[in-house]
Design a protein that fits this description.
The chain has one helix and four strands, in the order E-E-E-H-E. With 65 residues, it is mainly beta. The protein has a four-stranded mixed β-sheet, with helices on one face. Strand 1 and strand 2 form a beta hairpin. It is elongated, with a radius of gyration of 12 Å.
Length: 65
């Protein structure tokens, strides 16, 4: 099993894309953060030898991420 858990600040940009805000990112400039697709790739990478894969996102605006 692979489990990735992310907690902290998150936001959506003007294009409604979800970003996890790292210390170098901000609400005005989220692009130094980690975008949702990158987080998802942590558990969907085809070289992972896991039958179960879980991505948990506990941040603001993560509801539809």
């Amino acid at each position: 099993m692979v489990l990735v858990f992310v907690a902290g600040h998150g936001m959506r940009n003007d294009a409604n894309e979800y970003w996890f805000l790292t210390p170098s990112a901000s609400f005005d400039d989220p692009y130094d953060g980690i975008e949702r697709d990158t987080l998802e790739k942590l558990v969907t990478w085809d070289r992972l030898n896991a039958r179960q894969r879980v991505l948990l996102i506990d941040t603001c605006h993560s509801g539809s991420a």
